[in-house]
Amino acid sequence: MQEQGPEMEIVHLLRAVVVELGAHSARFAQRNGMHPTDVRALIALMDAERAGEEMTAGRLGTALGLNSAGTTALVDRLERAGHVRRVRDERDRRRVTVEVDERAVALGRSHFGPLIGRAVELLGGYDERELAAIRDFLTGVRETAEEDRTGHRAPRPAP
Amino acid sequence: MQEQGPEMEIVHLLRAVVVELGAHSARFAQRNGMHPTDVRALIALMDAERAGEEMTAGRLGTALGLNSAGTTALVDRLERAGHVRRVRDERDRRRVTVEVDERAVALGRSHFGPLIGRAVELLGGYDERELAAIRDFLTGVRETAEEDRTGHRAPRPAP
DNA sequence: GGTATTCTCTCGCTCAGCGAGATAATTGTT
DNA sequence: AACAATTATCTCGCTGAGCGAGAGAATACC
Q: pTM, whole model, 2 decimals?
């Protein structure tokens, strides 16, 4: 068994966090009769809403790596459960925008709220330099994974 | 749109990292003709190996949230692809321990290596206090998610 | 020694997601 | 303005991951 520096310990720690948060999300899915993909879809939809963009069925499918048939089935499922609404786009009537129902947002908040609250609480205990370290490290990891996906460097915002 | 403190920004960042690393792992699966669950299984097996524990079929299934039928199918799949070996436990001949093949480890290393290397590189740029902040924050999040799963506080190692 | 328990596997089924292709709306061409 | 080409979503039939029920085999308990 090779001995490694403190860096590898943190890498394994990050991986453990990813696994554990994935399990947390899977628990939310199971408790509410949903599948992991459904939760990923709701997250993508809420992210788009927070960013002020509207999410069409096609863009949602692309974001999740589904083809059009799978996307239709996914939106059917979410709509049947009352978590989203299909809204026909009036400017381009081929498109269907998918809107999250407020009750789905509340459901998510009730499950993820405590965890988020605890994370905020933890972050409250750090000073500016420590917060910057956490932020920069996470940003760096996210950008590296993104670059690997898109095949090119993500544009950095000017300082 | 409510304005939030710097804490929520980091929470969203962590969530983005989880999503992006999940996608990175899904890409590894797809490129090698595997499913997300197969990758999770390999990770669990390698974690157990690093911890010096042997992983039985049953324990693996429990760790992934599968029932026994699904676990058998999973191990069948991994064995057929040559990623693991079934080894009948000689002390308790009901048990089957699952061992990762060295080639699967190499395959994983070739995919995740660059990302891990970049993370280590990033971590090399921080001093002790910053590293401690990153480590403690990730540990805190992991423990909170764990507590939610197990229903009780995880034991903290003495300082 | 016999019964209960534990671990894995088999069988039949459900449903998420895929490939192929249909349908409808938009954009481009002449 | 009619016609073709493109785009967005949906329908149909199929494959395969994972489940429930239960069988088979080894171990633990009394």
A: 0.90
